[in-house]
Protein 1
Amino acid sequence: MPFPGGVVRSGSKVGSKYKTMFASTNDAFCPTLKGATNTELSPEIESVMEIVIDGLTFEDIALSMKVGIEAICNLGAASGVKRISAGNYGGKLGPHLFKLHDILNGSNS
Amino acid sequence: MNALTFTLKNALKFSVNCSALTPNSLESKSMTDIANTKVTYGNHSVQVTDLFDITGSDVTHIVFKNASNKMDYIGAHMSSGNITIEGNAGAYLGFTMKNGEIHCTGSAESYAACNMVGGLLKIDANVGDFLGAGSEGLRKGMRGGTVLIKGNAGDRVGDQMRRGLILIEGNVGDYCGSRMIAGTIGVLGNVGTYTAFNMHRGTLLLKNAPNLHATVQDCGTHTLPYLSLLFKSFKKYNTPFSQLSSQRVQRFVGDAAYKGNGEILILNA
């Protein structure tokens, strides 16, 4: 796993403002940079946990995401979880797109 | 051995340049040579004994008694030893100071810690403008060391500051952290207007929220665990900053007009 436990805060995005650096801080999901960038976060969000998933097939990853999302939802809003999103990185990370609603509906393909 | 003590004989009419009276510049001199040392007083040179009574012989610890705010450049280019100023100090206290410790029991004029590189500067009362700034024409201000101010500071604290730590227990004037490149400034009192003006990087740690200008952006309230390490580094100094413990801060970033990434942290948010 590239990160301890497969979980990383905010993480990195594909690309940067420097041509020799292929990855940089995922500023849109960084809570402490909310005022300094085009953020994807609402004001009450103070932490973003990015879960990195490595898998052999599309179906395995989709199933693991479904199980993970359901486990988080079962914790409830009182646990502090505000929302679940997926990092698309503008399609720069690879050909596969995991659409969360489709995964939860079982209609992913 | 007793500390080498320079006691001012009479009130000064003009400014005197005290840069020659540092531990490292006097360490190889005999007492006769020290007494014959020339200092610039107004627009002419005078012997040290024309202005000061000299007692003691330990050049590693220099004491200025009856010190006045016309005594400029105390501790300039100092690289070792201790200087104690009993009274006020003039401008450019600790100018380009590299190491050692300076303790001023009174107030200091403008440009204290100007171009400072290392060491510890403690001022028990107030300090003038441009604390930790660079001298005219330079693009970088303070480049290292620690400054502790018990009282208030004037305008332009940390102007173009590059590295180091400034802790101020009282209030500061306008343009705090202006053109700051890096380093840390802490203020427990109130801060004037145009804080972080053209700030590039660095950290302002403020107890009270200032009236920030539009190009400093609010990034919300956060709990930042790394602050415990910062507060722990304050423990070795006798300052109320060492009693800080809350990691809860409101974080601002700026100055956006300068594409700056400096951070302003408001404590106890």
Protein 2
Amino acid sequence: MAQEEAFSQLVEAHQTSLLRMCYLHLQDRQDAEDAVQETFIKAYRSMAAFRGESSEKTWLMRIAINVCRDMRRSNWFKYISRHVTPELLPEEGTVITEDTLMLNMCIMAMPAKWREVVLLYYYQGLTMTQTAQALGLAQSTVSSRLKQARACLREHLKGGYFDE
Amino acid sequence: MNEKDRVFIKHAIDTGLSGLSGNPCLAARIQASSPESSIGFRSPASLILALLLLAVAVSAIALGPSAVLEYLFPRDHKARDSATPYVQKIDISQKSQHTNAVIKDALIQDGRLSVGLSLSSEQPVFIVTQSISLNGQAIEVSSSSIESQWLRGELSTQSRGFTLDLTGTAFQGTEKGTVRLNAALLRPINGIKQIDIDEEDIAAVWAQIDQAIAEGLTPVSSHEPHEVLVGSHWMRENAYDMDSGIQYPVGSVHDYLTFSNMQMMDRIEATFTINPSIQHPN
């Protein structure tokens, strides 16, 4: 029962942020929901084997990124990415500022390699080391991609937050 | 990179996607449906869902899987059900020395013609689409899973296909559409060398690619789907900027034969007709 309780806590702690991260990455709500479910199924099946060499969050994010990468390679993703304009999904009544809109659109439009590091480092709050572990990259690679992503954000948000 | 940026980005994402929240029943559902679970179905709703899925699976087997619907909607069962009545059967088979190709069916929807097919080969081959024409005219391909990809063995569990953009064509006003597909199946002359194209040192990656080619090997990406790479000689000949980053444009058959140490193994040449008046209205 301890493992089941731990799993429930894992899902409760990370499900919503994972769903939003997958949505920005896959740009389709149904795909994002599928990706989150797939991520937690894989996590549940391999929980017993988790050795704690990385943090639980890093381990979970690694699974999620790999699931998203697999889905991005699917035929369906190639079809939908050409014909659907992704939209924000705010709660009813939420006021969206232009900065908020532009930043989300910019993240969705940037190359997948940059988007991965932005979402893990900035959104999920992983450290540089944890981001590198989750992506299977060297820290220098993560640092370089974050720099490029930040330049992209600055370019698209001229006159806004990143220009300050 | 500071805490202020992190707070700003997190707030922007959470605000923009505040309508997207997790499913409170997800953990319980996963635990209930796991084969490791000793409890089995926890609720009548799960049992009903399982029976419904079983009924759908049985009926799907009775009808036979549609390759084009599997290609277009691998996870969207609602879309598949809606499109099923408009699927046009083709069932043209081409068997050559090493490969077997079956053009299975097609669907016209939303100004696009999609074709589903299955492919199998005895050994790993790299498929490159050379041309697709509709009523004698070359046509823009919107998407394809038979372009510059590896085939390994029997692919009965994965339907492939391609989608043509019918915009601006005279197809809609005709009585029939004749589609011609030409594809080449290539294989490495001497074997492959896997190269990590994600390395930050771009010059080093190019050096590895060129070294592989010099050794008579075919360089491929170490990351799935293991695309075949072309050497820097091709990049310079085609005036690509070597310093701006690695680009791996999909090459033509000629490029792979000339610049990637590959050889022709087989060809797929198929001609089939489609009825333009049968279209999915959605």
Protein 3
Amino acid sequence: MRFVKRLDELSGNPKARRSWTYLAVFFFVVVILIPSVFVLTKMLTDWDLVSEVLDDSDAVAIIEGAAWNSFSIAFIVTMIDIVVGLPMAWILVRRQFKARRYLDALMDVPLAFPTAVLGISVVIFWGVPSEGVTIPGLGLVVSPYLMIVLLHIIFTYPYMVRSLSAILEQIDTNYETAAMTLGASRWTAVRTITLPLFRAGLATGFILCFARSLSETGGTYIALTMMGKQSTFFTGPTYIGYLKDIGSADDAMGAMILVSVVMIVVALILLILVRRLIAKLKIPMKKIWPEFGRRISRGLLPKAKDGIAYAFLFIMVLLPSFYIFMYLTQPIPSLDYGTLFSSIGISFLIAGAAVVIDILFGIPVAMQIARHKNSKLSRILDELVNVPLIIPTTALGFSLALFWGSIGQASELAIVLVILGHVAFTYPLVVRNITGAIEEVDPAYEEVAMTLGAKPFQAFRKILLPIVKSSVFAGGILAFTRSLGETGATISISDSVNAVPIYITELVGRGDYADAAMCSIILIIICFILTMAVRHLTRGGDDGA
Amino acid sequence: MPEIRLEGLCKTFGDTVAADGLSLDIADGEYVCILGPTGAGKTTCMRMICGLTRPDSGRVYFDGEDITDKDIDLRETTMLSQTYALFPNMNVYGNVKFAPTIKEWPEESSKQIVKSMLHMVHLEKKAEWKVGELSGGQQQRIALARALASGSKVLLLDEPLRALDARLRIDLRKELRAMAKGMNLTCIHVTHDQDEALEMADRIAVIRHGRIIQSGTPMEVFQDPATPFVANFVGRSNMITGKVVNSDGVTTDIEAAGGKVFKARASDLQAGEEAVLAIKVGSTKISHLSGEGQEMFCSGRVERMLYEGATITVELAVDGLGLISAKLPNRKYEDYRPGDEVAVHWMPSKASVFRIPEGGLEKELRLDRWER
């Protein structure tokens, strides 16, 4: 308590407050931002390695192909998400029905599953059974490309629906109602009034989905392995993973640098482009087709639209996710529980440490962005915070390993580096969540508290923090599950840290599908209990206050 | 016991000037209303007093002590925000007890204070309620109780009645003032509602463009406005522009368009100067034309009659001058009807007269935000 009191006193000093903000900003820039893009400088210093690769036309072709696969898949997946996510967001926000709460909860399920698990589940559901798979699937013979699209839709879809519904919730229905009382049909009202207001949500959703798909390594790699295509079909991240697996360090180094740089640069350009373009995107307004609008606003069409939205959610997203539970019908294999639980322990350690660091260093940055909107620093931070989000985690991890490796010997500190890596890609999630929550809180609360005699830090911990508590936890849970499911970053930072998705990937690599599935189920159950417990705890806190 | 002195406060936010050499003295225990249109710098003025905003230049003194750089929490100036800002993470009791807890007063006396404050605002039965369950008026009272429980001797009220229903707003004026007076607080109440200011204040400070343009008792500000803007903002006025034809120390006479001469109180204006005369609509008298010898400045034709409850407003069209309004008791409603020709008159001592403001009268009277 003494310590807290010291902080209270200290917070009265504007210099101390500013130093704390600057420290957090410094942490963000030095520990997250610079290491994330360090590989760019590596390309310049180790140009020999890179130019060797560039001379090798086969290698270049593979890299081009991998990058093309990554970006085109991410684009297709995002487009599908927009088309099917929009009606679903509408249902979640505008419709009143009893089961809405459950629908809402179901939406987040794919986020709680480690992608490695989803990889197994999806291939088994859609695909031709691989050798050793005892569960019947739909048996469709699909190309690896299509399979990965199907897989990526599952874990990007929730992001899209969430981003769109967050904006939709803020759009007053009065606009639409006003348009309709002025004679517009519902469809015309939505198209001309509501959709144009949607752009911000569309941009966020686009960036989140695109980045998520671009980054994903574990599930993609597993899916390809199960299809036997892991050494012939690549995406950017799986290619880095593949090189790490097979290549002797030096041969692969040039190629890894090149892929990482390509992925990072193209991703960043896209981030900037999307932000600019979507802000300028004009939904055609000149022409109104009132008759057409009226016709499609009535009768079967709106119902069909909702029906398709539900069908998509269940058939394309939920069923393939849960399909892995079919393994519960099989005889339970004898698992190596020691390795499983130690790897789960490591994963929890990494995720937990990452979340704590995220929150500690994220709150001052979030406060700066939310409370000093017009300052230059805030605007720059607001943009930069997104950078680690859009960079493919495998490239990010590789870059991070290079950065810390170049500073000192890293191998003993492997676990610390992995934690820092996980901090990098989960930090934006936490900061975004907290920033959004703080923006919603009227600054008058803290101001009044201070005029009543509270020091700034007291006003923060007694008033603001309790108000935004649930968003802090939500951001924390999001970051935690994201970290728990991450494969690419962990692999590319260190081979020795055996986190649980890596263990599962290994099992799949060995063809022990049943073992991998059981481990996945155990992991899912543990995650589920954990999230429930956290939700319950945070809610209990509210009643007590 | 604080006596507050603001000296030449300046503050700009980007291109917006919120305070431009603002000076004001507030006596101990006084209830001062800072009255001004939206964007005049009212809230900034208040925030500089409690320390939420640091002035770019100028000083703030409490009892002669320069506290411009003092921390907010040590100033003992409590703000009552227009949204009340009752902390949603605490119940009513927790809110009122916030300041005693923060200041680490002994538990027993804290409890006593909270109890007596809740008693004073007649809400002791709601102590365990959540703040969301209270009505607007109750929230307002709890916010007041919370502010009073802090032991501060300066109370800053930022449009405290704005969010309430019209009727309740009027009822609470007296109550709020009485409580503040009862606790012997120095109060600074910011509002854009002139009725509220006239009814509640010991003294009104009219603010515009980040500067206090007049400060005085409600009667002084109402009857003897310092500028045409004040004349029109605090109680509506008819404005007549013209040239001074006589200024003899008894009246100031102005000749308006069409050669009509209007009389106002004595002033230092000289004959030949351009001037504007302001007469409150309530002091503008009208009567039916009765022939020779009638005292009148001009005649006008009744255009519209507005029934407002206790009063009526008669709008007259006067040739060459436009519209002139007169506010009369409602029993006069039957006396006039549109189309009637009537005489316009007032007591010269009720009318103010000013030099034509720089930039013209229209700009002077504008209520909207200041543009440089």
Protein 4
Amino acid sequence: MLYPSQAVAKPYFIAAIALFAVQVLFGLIIGIQYVMINIPFITFATAKLIHTNLLIIWLLFGFMGAAYYIIPEESEQELYNPKLAVQLFWIFLALTIITTLGYLLLPYATFAKITGNQFFPTMGREYLEQPTIIKLGLFAVLCGFSYNIAMTVLHGRKTMINLLLLVGIVGSTIVFVFAFYNSSNLVLAKYYRWWLLHFWLEGTWELIMEAILAYVIFKITGDRAIVEKWLYIIVAVTLTTTVLGIGHHYYWIGVPEYWQWVGTIFSVFELLPFFFMVLFVFNVVNCTKCQYSNNAVKLWALSTPIMAFLGAGVLGFLHTLAPVNYYSHGTQITSAHGHLAFYSTYVMIVLTMISYAMPILRDHKVINDGIAQKFEILAFWLMTVAMSLMALFIAIAGIMQVYVQRATDLALPFIEIQNSMVVMFWLREIGGVVFFIGVIIYITNFFMVKKEYGTR
Amino acid sequence: MWQNLNHVKNTYLMKIKISTKPIYYSSLILFVLLLLGLTIHTTIVLPQLDHRENLTPQIIKGKMVWEEHNCIGCHTLLGEGAYFAPELSNVYKRRGGSQGGIYFIKAWLKAMPTNIPGRRQMPQFNLTEDELNALIAFLKWTSEINTSSWPPSEKG
């Protein structure tokens, strides 16, 4: 650690990992509800709400931690206001806990009433279920975070990595204003909801992911020039393809049909950034000079683009072609793609960053003991293989669902069709348990004292 | 050898960077303008597709009932939501349309949970008569949106 203020990243990473574990736990509850139907105390909708909301929240914690760690080092100066970063951490954590408890303990309608949703209705839309007040708080946290990062970058050395991170962070904050737009016209509400979700998940978050990946690769190889050149190509392709890529969310929500053409064409191009990321890591890591001892980081950093290419890239591309999407939209196939895409891009990049930064933040010296390394690598394989298999099982269920429900005229209602896929849901749940074991092992590796980290 | 190769790659990438910068910026601006243009066009023609002239205060209230009970926690609406329970954008038509769709959905909501073993259960939301009518009016309006004939099947 070069700058003491980088230490503010530590609580963010800890919160991210803790919330990750909770999120996966709620995923297991939902998975059980798919096969054993009635679980006392918690409804499917509540568990699903927590599963998806915590996902977004802990990834944000991870991004914030990554930014607080990377930015001082790249800008070659202390964080502009480390105190603000710590205060924002506690505010963000409090908002998260209040919201989660609200979901858990109150009926959703009561929660909406207490928080005054009727005066400014923004709740009850996928991923945007938080009460309006909480959204305001979240926006304030994002603004403070952007301010802190921007001031640090503007006062310090400017590199491609920290500028890109800054653009990603400020961009995320700006598009968050669409969370507050909820037209009483469902079509308009859906149209602009995607200006937040699409431009986060396939735009600004992707930029943040690329910046983190570039930073870690730079730390492994030590060659800034080549990293920045690749980064330029990747970012250029990301930004140009994502703008009209938004069309693939617009096929069936009531807008004109030309969006099917726009969305399909740009979905094809949206593969490119992931393709270049794969080329990038394989080109730069393939150098014999690099002596970097944290093998876990290498594994995470190399696998992230490959998995992202498969999960977000190829699977997303197949699923967002309009003629395919006509059948696959809103089925288990969407769920399969969602799982693999979120895991392979955002979960993996945050874990890459944590894997790189945590040993340094905890001031571990280089020790060639490696037992913690072995644990972390085991956790990596468990999580990655389990998630890939889960996505496979859900996708098979989805294909069965599409075939029976949409492609044939069998008079089976939805519920009967779902019951016929129960084997796949069981296999998925087993995958989920293995994934959770991976998470536990990942966490235990932090409690092993001897941990090596890389130096050049 | 690696060093040599890296050097070649380096200069090659440098060339790409310089030569593509104008293409990159101009295409980015072009695509942003296209997005804005298409959004303006969509906004202009949208009233013919979403039939907003039929939007009544009751339907708007129905949308709020829909949102405040987190229906997308299990169902999808126009394919967005959760995949645990059936698609509801066409439920009004599926359950009889003008030939009794209202009565079927109302009776259905009141009969929950069914407590049939082995069947996914929907909670009882204890909606008032007003809220029920509003919700069904909203679902009826939603079923009339022109969605390029999606969903592919009546089953959703």
